[in-house]
Design a protein that fits this description.
Length: about 350
């Protein structure tokens, strides 16, 4: 049954509620937190909207909003790139192909698909420059608090400028959190029993800091994407440093697919006699890769047994002629895993 008193009260409160002051002047229309690939991408989108006259000051409000800047990116580090600025361990690279990792509005034109960390950072920086974003980035500005006012219809951000020590307060109509998903100061670091007796150094790849590993014995704990890119780089005899021996400790085995590191299709398909531009080919190849990834994801979730067979089949193919029997290999790995709770893969420098 309808409660008439409650309804009356609701209507009264609606009518008497303080109207939001939509026209209170903000410092920014949009505040973006973080200058990683996401924050820069967001800012590029705002620039594109402005060029189409869909974002920014227009019409009658123009005069009043002239003091409101369109957007700013607040970045607590001293440079842009986020992940690709922070991680500097040997071999750092993407594990997705650069066509799908790159922006759809700015082609990745390098033939290297598993892009090196430095190249990704350069791509982000070049994009920022090309879209006029660089001058909107405030470095060493950490957002420490944000709060929303329904009355003013504005966000208020408390920002610490680490260069000057100053604390600023800025308002914005919109806040975009492009802060990534992990702790920049302290990566996940479990305590290992007996680590106090260990005489070597324990390093998280997040804080690599020009580590000297030349001719040293190294243990990598974990077998995810970081470990997999780190290991071959540590035993690369052509690089300045090369470890003497590397052991990888693995708790949970992962399926690994081998994909080509290079793709020259952009150059071929947009060559001298092609009617297609590099940008058009990029768009088409990007769509192909997105569809392929979505297809593989569907296959893995709907037919996991088939997917396992496909992955194992490709490993068998890769190992052909290497003298390693993939069946013995996986049986040995699983046996070890069950008995020890970990699996060891050894790579020894000759
Ligand atoms: C080694 C490695 C390899 C990876 N490879 C891939 C891959 O191949 N494919 C893939 O899809 N993903 C990969 N990732 C995940 C990767 O982090 C994301 O794909 C992507 O780079 C995240 O971008 P982002 O801009 O969202 O965040 P980040 O790159 O994390 O950037 C966030 C930014 O926000 C800033 N920030 C955070 N908090 C504040 C604050 N309070 N105030 C001001 N600034 C702040 C940070 O300083 C940072 O610059 C990888 C990650 C790692 C570590």
């Amino acid at each position: 049954m309808l409660d008439i008193t409650t309804t009356k009260q609701a209507i009264k409160s609606r009518l008497t509620r303080k109207k939001p002051q939509m026209d209170k002047l903000a410092d920014y229309e949009v505040l973006i937190i973080g200058a990683g690939i996401a924050g820069i991408g967001m800012a590029c989108r705002l620039q594109q909207l402005q060029h189409k006259n869909l974002f920014g000051h227009k019409g009658a409000k123009k005069q009043k909003q002239a003091k409101t800047q369109r957007f700013a990116i607040l970045e607590k580090r001293a440079d842009l790139g986020g992940t690709w600025d922070l991680f500097t361990y040997p071999g750092i690279r993407s594990d997705s192909d650069a066509l799908t990792f790159g922006y759809n509005f700015r082609p990745w034109l390098d033939y290297r698909m598993l892009a090196a960390g430095g190249d990704i950072k350069r791509y982000i920086a070049d994009t920022a420059r090309e879209f006029g974003i660089t001058e909107h980035i405030r470095y060493e500005h950490e957002v420490q608090k944000i709060s929303w006012s329904s009355t003013d219809q504005l966000w208020t951000a408390t920002i610490k400028n680490h260069a000057s020590g100053e604390v600023l307060v800025k308002t914005a109509k919109f806040v975009v959190g492009a802060t990534g998903y992990y702790d920049y100061e302290q990566g996940y670091r479990p305590h290992f029993d007996g680590e106090d007796d260990f005489r070597g150094r324990i390093v998280h790849p997040q804080h690599w800091d020009n580590l000297d590993y030349n001719d040293k014995k190294v243990v990598i704990i974990g077998s995810g994407a970081t470990a997999m890119t780190l290991l071959p780089a540590l035993v690369d005899e052509d690089s300045e440093q090369c470890a003497r021996h590397v052991t990888m400790l693995q708790r949970t085995p992962t399926y690994v697919a081998s994909v080509p590191g290079d793709d020259h299709a952009i150059d071929w398909l947009s060559g001298k006699f092609s009617p297609l531009s590099k940008e058009q080919v990029y768009t088409a190849l990007r769509a192909r890769n997105v569809l392929r990834q979505q297809g593989l994801y569907k296959l893995a979730t709907h037919a996991p047994k088939l997917m396992k067979a496909v992955l194992k089949g490709s490993v068998t193919k890769e190992l052909k002629g290497s003298g390693v029997d993939p069946k013995d290999c996986s049986r040995a790995l699983y046996a070890r895993l069950q008995s020890l709770g970990s699996t060891r893969l050894r790579y020894t420098r000759q």
